[in-house]
Amino acid sequence: MPPEGAHRPRRGATTIEDVARAAGVSRQTVSNALNAPHRVRPETLERVTAMIRELGYQPDQSARSLRSGARRTIGYLAPADDPHDPNPLMAGFLEALVDAAGEQGWRVLLFRPARGAADPTAAIDELVAARQVDGLVLADVLAEDARVEHVVRLGVPFVTFGRTGPAQPQHWVDIANDAATAAVVRHLAALGHRRIGYLGGSEDLPWMAARRAGFLAESRRLGLAAVTAAGPEAAVRELLRGPEPPTAVAAGSDLLALDVYEAVRAEGLAVGPRGIAVTGFHDTPLCRHLHPALTSVRLPLGTIAAALVERLLDQVRGAGPPPAGVELAAELVVRGSTAGPAEPRALTAVPAEGARRLR
């Protein structure tokens, strides 16, 4: 406990020495409570933190940065995107990342290579050479990603949204993509579907390959008849024209689910009750604006961002690289696009003009 009669300075003029005297600890203990709380005993940390709040102490971040060399800034190498048609998932991730960093008293510096640049590592070199950031966040990571190899060579603290290759440092946070599509299959099977389809994207993308693998493995386990397609609307229409068409189609993204909606309606059928069940992946705002609203897999973006920031700051503070990646569960959000299978003769047709594009 602080000594009786300890000095209580005027709010707004508090120094770190004032906090130390009021809390009955050393100046270094207050500094550790702010910069390396893992070094402070829990009961002491609680007392110092309470006194910081009570006295209204505001650390001088600029002076702290000059003394330590830390910028308290995280560099985020943003994936290339179209400003006229931005990726809503990655926009949501950026919001979550800024929030997670802010809660730790850090900020995020957004950067990317010049449009059309063949080598993405030049932008990393420029940022690191300018000593503008303390660590990096990379997203859309591929197996044996050249950006990861480059950052490892530079010796810069980093984390990735997405799994790194087995020979690379395991600094990643990701969702269990295969488990998420397995949950989709169980949902459709519980509704009574026995013939299900899957529309996926390029399997050069590891998350897409994992989603397809999870779908097929769970379908086999449950004894379901499963078919897959890759490509736009035409591929789904071929599935629906087969001798035993699927009564449900899962898509590897919400945009691919939109192709399924269009294919179903182009065949004169309906989506949802008395029609074809459809699911998506990512739970972007698109899901709520489709009719019927789209059942989709929601990524825990806030939890992902918080885990990335925590793992990165651990490295910056000298805790060393994490020994293994973190895999998080996703959530299936059920909406009107999934219902039990209809008898073939009961499938509801839609007018031809309603079968065209929804964009």
Structure in a nutshell:
This protein is an alpha/beta fold. It contains 13 helices and 12 strands.
Overview of this protein structure:
With 359 residues, the chain is an alpha/beta fold. The chain has 13 helices and 12 strands. The protein has helices at residues 16-23, 27-35, 42-55, 61-68, 88-103, 121-129, 146-154, 177-190, 206-221, 233-240, 254-266, 286-289, 301-316; strands at 73-77, 107-111, 135-139, 158-161, 172-175, 195-200, 225-230, 248-251, 277-282, 295-298, 326-328, 331-333. The strands form 2 sheets. Strands 2-1-3-4-5-11 form a 6-stranded parallel β-sheet, with helices on both faces. Helix 1 (16-23) crosses helix 2 (27-35), helix 8 packs parallel to helix 9 (206-221) and helix 10 (233-240) crosses helix 11 (254-266). The longest helix is centred in the first third of the chain and has 16 residues, at 88-103.
Key traits:
single chain; about 350 residues; alpha/beta; 6-stranded parallel β-sheet; 13 helices; disordered N terminus; disordered C terminus
Strand content: 15-25%
- Largest beta-sheet details: 6 strands, parallel
Radius of gyration: 26 Å
Number of E-state strands:
12
Average pLDDT number: 86
What percentage of residues falls in helices of 4 or more residues? 40-55%
How would the global form be characterised? elongated
Low-confidence stretches: 1-12, 61-68, 344-359
Number of helices: 13
> SSE order, as H and E?
HHHHEHEHEHEEHEHEHEHEHEHEE
| CA(first)-CA(last) distance | 65 Å
> Order of strands across the biggest sheet?
2-1-3-4-5-11
Structural class: alpha/beta
